[in-house]
Amino acid sequence: MPSTDRSRKAPEHVAIIMDGNGRWAKARGRPRLFGHQAGARRVSEIVEACPDLGVRYLTIFAFSTENWKRTQAEVSGLMTLFRRYIIKEAQRLLYKGVRVRFIGDRDRLDPKLVKLMDDLESLTAPNDQVNLTIALNYGGRDEVTRATRRMARDVAAGDLDPEAVDAETLSRYLDTRTLPDPDLVIRTSGEARISNFLLWQSAYAEYEFIDTLWPDFTAEKFAEILAGFGRRERRFGAVLV
Ligand code: IPE
Ligand code: IPE
Ligand code: MG
Asked: Which residues line ligand 1 (CB under 6 A)?
């Protein structure tokens, strides 16, 4: 296959740690929630840029298992924002051919929010233009822990042979079981850390840490990063000849 074909070099799955909303708001003398609202508006732009850029899977980190440590006002503001986002965007996502999935532990979330999440997943299930996964109350360690607990239950019930457990088996117990591994992980806001995002799945992802704060992230910036990805050489431990 000719390697000049741009779509061949596009990452199939891009995961984004959307960081910097609070600092963006602070720089404008506004409350943190103002930054989160601006950040939420950016999501649609990036999702809708995916088909043209050849990205089939986009996963975004919206709320981590550690984000409960924030003030109650910020946490409840974020939860309201998630509810409003789903209600406001559902029809548009459906119309744009976006299939939405959620990953993370739903047990700690408000049942009203969980219902909206379930409904959006069902509504958009027939779509396949873009696969948008929203990580909400998600933590990589929490996900692996929950998966291991379910696996242990299956072993105890005699439904799983412990000797047959391999990496594939564990992958099938993760929230991401229906997704390919991310090829590229982008983090905005200048922090060079992964903050418990997709730990298992990103073992061979390429990373891009950029200074832009999430509410300033644009489709043009996204396209630039993807072009850079196309120039990277991925080896997966092998020696290329
Ligand atoms: C990312 O922005 C959004 C969430 C974690 C929900 P932050 O809220 O972390 O913004 P900064 O890092 O404080 O600027
Ligand atoms: C990571 O950002 C979580 C999300 C983007 C949802 P944080 O702002 O919570 O991460 P730390 O605290 O800087 O590591
Ligand atoms: Mg942050």
From this structure: 18-23, 63, 67, 78, 189
Q: What is the pLDDT of residue 8?
A: 52
Distance CA 52, CA 233 (A): 23
Cα separation, 66 vs 8, whole angstroms: 36
DSSP string for 176-210: TTTSPPPSEEEE-TT----TTSSTTTTTT-EEEE-
Q: Which of 23, 63, 64 to mutate to test the pocket of ligand 2 (most atoms within 8 A of CB)?
A: 64
Reported as a pLDDT band with limits 50, 70 and 90, residue 241 is: confident
Q: What is the DSSP letter of 6?
A: H
Q: Look at residue 146 in the predicted model and tell me its pLDDT.
A: 98
d(CA 240, CA 157): 45
Mean pLDDT of all residues in 113-140: 98
Q: With beta carbons less than 8 A apart as the criterion, state whether 171 and 147 touch.
A: no
d(CA 117, CA 101): 8
CA-proximal residue: ligand 2, atom 3 (nearest): 64
Give, as residue ranges, everything with CB less than 5 Å from ion ligand 3: 19
**60-77: pLDDT as tens digits:** 999 999 999 999 999 999
Work out the number of other CB atoms within 10 angstroms of the CB of residue 221: 15
